[in-house]
Every structure is written in C-alpha cells, then in structure tokens.
Specification:
heterodimer, A: mainly beta, four-stranded antiparallel β-sheet, B: mainly beta, six-stranded mixed β-sheet, about 0% helix
C-alpha cells in the first residue's frame, strides 16, 4: 500500500509478557517516529529515527522500551515485561524529509491492551 | 525541553468561526504544525508554519508569531464533521534532531 502500515492493529497480552509492534513506513521516507496515545490524551513522543543517524530515544519511558529500524525502512518497537500502564495506542509516522518542514504521515496505530 | 499549551475543550456552532490557540516554549524552534484527529483515527496534517504570519488553506487558516511563542488555528464556516481533536505540534531542532512534539490537543465539539 501507499501509506504507513502498522501491525498488529490490536494486541492483547498478559502483564509481564514481551510485545513487538511493527511499522512499515512509506517507501523513501527518511524520518520515522513512534508515539504513544492513551485514551483521550495527546501524543507522547517516544523515539525518532532520522536517516542513518543515531536515533533520538529521549522519549522512551523506561528501559523496558526499545526500538530498531533496519535498513532505513521497517521499524520494530519492543516492550519487555509489559505493565498495565503500557496500555495505549502506539502510532508510527514517517516523513519524506528529515529537516524542517516535512509533514508526518501516520499509520492507523497498534492498540495494546495489557491485562 | 519543550512545553506546548492549548485549551482542552471548545464548543462552537455549525456555520460559525472558532479560533484554537497554542502557546509553546522550545529551545530550538523549527516550525509548527496543526493536525486533526477524529476519534479512533490517526492524525492528519492540516497546516505548517515556519515564518511569522498567516497561512490560509480553504476554511482553515493558521497563524504564527515566533517572538511570542504563539499560534492559532482558525476554522471558518464550521461543519459538523469538524468535530475532532486539533493537535498543535512543534518541531524542535535542538541537538541536531528535528523531532516533532505534540500538545495534548483541543477537543472541538460542533453543535447544530
């Protein structure tokens, strides 16, 4: 497809389990973002990949969260030992240019529920 | 660090005009975006300002004053479908990055 693709769209897991969320950005987009959105809240920045540079991880809430971007394309967000407060919609977005400007194109999100 | 403030909720009448304000503080300002998000959907791009002044796109306009750390989104001829959350986002270029930081959003309810 032409848009940002995220999988799974819904994930229910038990507390303490690890989860992986996947993002396929729009082809050719150099920048990739992960955000978290709790019900009725705004978007919380998690991590930002810009081309081949080291990512900006300043938004990751704890060391249980990590993300990779392989080959400058697909990204995986991993949450280890999930907690109930991790329940949220995880949104991925990509941008065609890394510098100023460059609107973000969002995927539909992965809704994570931790029981 | 960054700080972005916008009203939590607003209501308006169909056909009217509404202005949603956003104030921000950031160490490396590199542009301001407005996004629209309907309930249960992903945000979609509305506007981008990097220089002072007004940008107009149909029924939507966005204004920026960099010296005041202030922006507003103006919606004219409101329609029921404009009921959504409106997110102000600032691109922070500090440290060589250009990450986009979002405010908490303003939920707009348009009534007949």
């Amino acid at each position: 497809g032409a848009g940002v693709s995220q999988s799974p769209s819904n994930k229910v897991t038990e507390k303490g389990k690890d989860v992986e969320l996947r993002c396929d950005p729009i082809s050719g987009h150099t920048a990739l973002y992960w955000y978290r959105q709790s019900l009725g809240q705004g978007l919380e920045f998690l991590i930002y990949f810009q081309g081949n540079s080291a990512p900006d991880k300043s938004g990751l809430p704890s060391d249980r969260f990590s993300a990779e971007r392989t080959g400058g394309s697909v990204s995986t967000l991993t949450i280890q030992r999930t907690q109930q407060e991790d329940s949220a919609v995880y949104l991925c977005a990509s941008s065609p240019i890394a510098g100023p400007g460059g609107e973000l194109f969002f995927g539909e999100g992965s809704r994570l529920t931790v029981l | 660090g960054q700080n972005i403030d916008q009203p939590t909720e607003m209501t308006a009448t169909e056909g009217a005009i509404v202005q949603i304000n956003c104030t921000y503080q950031t160490s490396g300002f590199n542009g301001l975006f407005w996004y629209q998000q309907h309930a249960g959907e992903a945000p979609t791009f509305l506007s981008y300002n990097v220089l002072d002044g007004l940008e107009e796109k149909g029924r939507f306009s966005s204004f920026l004053s960099r010296s005041k750390g202030y922006s507003y989104l103006l919606l004219k001829e409101l329609q029921m479908k404009d009921s959504a959350s409106y997110l102000c986002a600032v691109r922070d270029g500090a440290g060589g990055y250009n990450k986009l930081i979002f405010g908490a959003g303003t939920r707009l309810a348009v009534h007949p």
